[in-house]
C-alpha cells in the first residue's frame, strides 16, 4: 500500500504520526491486505494507543527517569566480566560500567572496539587477518626466533623468524626500516641482526646493555595507537575483530572497514570523531546494553532523557557536581546536591537571586512544586 494513502487517512483523523510509524502502518496494511474501512479502524486504534503512550502535561519525567534507572541499578553486579565468549578480552559491565557512563569519564577502564567489514570483505578471512595485524600491537619480541645477550663482547644479537613474519602478514622490509630508524648501531645480515649499546660510562656498561635489550624486545613494529590485543571472531557468515583499547578515527580510515557498524564503547571518542549527536546515541546504546546484559529492562525513554540532558549543551557532560547538577541556575538546588557551604558562600558574595522555578528549591522552602497539580494556578475574576 502506498504511504500517501495512509497519510491521507491519518490527516483525516486530525493527528500527526512520525514518518516511521506511517511507513510501518503502510507495510502492515499491505501484508494483511486491508481495505479502506479496516485501514481507517487501524489508524483509529493506533491514534488511541499513541495518545495513551504520551506523557501527561506536568509529569515529573526527571524523577521518574531517575527512579527507573536507579532502582534496577541497585540489582546490578559489581564484577568485571570476560567478553562474551572470548577469554582474552576483559570488559567492564554492571554497575561500574553504568557509573562510568553517567559520569562521562574521559578515561574508561576497559575501552573496546567492535570492527566490522564491508560485504565484499566480511567473509574473506585472509583480508581480515591482515587488517587485524595492522591494527593490533605487535612488538619485535613476537617475531623472534633467537635472542642472545653477549656480556663478553658487550653486544646483542637477534634472529627474526621469517615464518612468524609471514604468519602475521607483515612486510619484512618495513620491519627492518623501523629497526634502523629506532637504533643507530645495528648490523644487518639477512634475518640476523646485532646491536651495540652506546656506552658513555664503562661502569654502567652492563646496565646500558640490559636497557638496550629491553628496548629492542619492546620495539613496536605494527599496530594502531592506543590499541593492544585484537581478537578475530567468526560471527555467523562474517568475520569481525574485537580490540582491547580504542582508536575510532584511525580505524574508520582503513580500507574495507564498515563505517556504519564499527563501534567503540568510549563515548568521548565517539563525540570527537562523529559529533555530539552520535555521542548521545552511544550513551543510550551503552546504558541500555549494560542493563540488558544484566537481565534488566528499562524503558528506553528514561535512558533517552538522561542522554539528552548529558548532551543538551553540545558537549558530553557528566551528571555530577562537575556537570549538570553543578551548573543548575538555582542556588538552593546546587547547594542541596554537594558542597553546600561553597555554593551558598559564592552566591552570597555574588548576590545571586533564586527565582524558585525548579523542584528542589521549592521543596526546601516548603512550597508546592511546579509539577503535577502544582503546575496549574487558579485565578478568580470577581464580578464587576
Automatic annotation (TrEMBL):
GO terms for molecular function: DNA binding; DNA-directed RNA polymerase activity. It catalyses: RNA(n) + a ribonucleoside 5'-triphosphate = RNA(n+1) + diphosphate. This is DNA-directed RNA polymerase subunit Rpo1C. Its EC number is 2.7.7.6. GO terms for biological process: DNA-templated transcription. DNA-dependent RNA polymerase (RNAP) catalyzes the transcription of DNA into RNA using the four ribonucleoside triphosphates as substrates. Forms part of the jaw domain. Gene3D superfamilies: 1.10.150.390. GO terms for cellular component: cytoplasm; DNA-directed RNA polymerase complex. Belongs to the RNA polymerase beta' chain family. The gene is rpo1C. Keywords: Coiled coil, Cytoplasm, DNA-binding, DNA-directed RNA polymerase, Nucleotidyltransferase, Transcription, Transferase. Part of the RNA polymerase complex. It holds the Pfam family RNA_pol_Rpb1_5. It is an enzyme of class 2 (transferase). Its main location: cytoplasm. Residues 32-59 form a coiled coil. It is found in: Cytoplasm. Residues 54-330 form the RNA polymerase Rpb1 domain. InterPro entries: DNA-dir_RpoC_beta_prime, RNA_pol_Rpb1_5, RPO1C.
Amino acid at each position: 500500500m502506498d504511504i500517501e494513502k495512509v497519510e491521507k487517512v491519518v490527516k483525516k483523523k486530525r493527528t500527526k504520526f512520525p514518518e516511521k510509524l506511517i511507513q510501518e502502518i503502510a507495510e502492515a496494511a499491505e501484508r494483511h491486505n486491508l481495505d479502506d474501512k479496516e485501514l481507517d479502524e487501524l489508524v483509529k486504534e493506533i491514534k488511541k494507543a499513541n495518545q495513551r503512550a504520551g506523557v501527561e502535561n506536568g509529569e515529573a519525567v526527571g524523577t521518574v527517569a531517575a527512579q527507573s534507572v536507579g532502582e534496577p541499578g541497585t540489582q546490578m553486579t559489581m564484577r568485571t566480566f570476560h567478553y562474551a565468549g572470548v577469554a582474552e578480552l576483559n570488559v567492564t559491565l554492571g554497575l561500574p560500567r553504568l557509573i562510568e557512563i553517567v559520569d562521562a569519564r574521559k578515561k574508561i577502564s576497559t575501552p573496546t572496539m567492535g570492527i566490522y567489514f564491508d560485504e565484499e570483505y566480511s567473509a574473506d578471512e585472509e583480508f581480515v587477518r591482515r587488517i587485524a595485524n595492522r591494527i593490533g600491537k605487535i612488538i619485535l619480541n613476537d617475531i623472534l626466533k633467537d635472542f642472545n645477550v653477549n656480556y663478553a663482547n658487550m653486544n646483542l644479537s637477534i634472529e627474526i623468524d621469517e615464518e612468524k613474519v609471514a604468519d602475521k602478514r607483515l612486510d619484512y622490509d618495513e620491519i627492518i626500516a623501523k629497526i634502523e630508524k629506532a637504533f643507530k648501531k645495528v648490523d644487518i645480515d639477512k634475518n640476523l641482526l646485532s646491536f651495540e649499546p652506546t656506552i658513555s660510562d664503562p661502569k654502567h656498561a652492563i646496565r646500558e646493555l640490559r636497557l638496550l635489550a629491553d628496548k629492542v624486545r619492546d620495539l613496536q613494529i605494527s599496530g594502531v595507537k592506543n590499541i593492544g590485543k585484537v581478537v578475530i571472531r567468526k560471527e555467523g557468515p562474517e568475520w569481525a575483530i574485537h580490540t582491547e583499547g580504542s582508536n575510532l578515527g584511525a580505524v574508520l580510515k582503513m580500507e574495507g572497514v564498515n563505517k556504519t557498524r564499527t563501534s567503540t564503547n568510549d563515548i568521548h571518542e565517539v563525540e570527537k570523531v562523529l559529533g555530539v549527536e552520535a555521542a548521545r546515541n552511544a550513551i543510550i546504546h551503552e546504558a541500555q546494553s549494560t542493563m540488558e546484559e544484566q537481565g534488566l529492562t528499562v524503558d528506553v525513554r528514561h535512558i533517552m532523557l538522561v542522554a539528552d540532558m548529558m548532551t543538551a549543551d553540545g558537549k558530553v557532560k557528566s551528571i555530577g557536581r562537575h556537570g549538570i547538577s553543578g551548573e543548575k541556575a538555582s542556588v538552593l538546588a546546587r547547594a542541596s546536591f554537594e558542597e553546600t557551604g561553597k555554593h551558598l558562600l559564592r552566591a552570597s558574595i555574588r548576590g545571586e537571586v533564586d527565582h524558585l522555578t525548579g523542584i528542589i528549591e521549592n521543596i526546601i522552602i516548603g512550597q508546592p512544586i511546579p509539577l503535577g497539580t502544582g503546575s496549574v494556578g487558579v485565578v478568580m475574576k470577581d464580578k464587576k
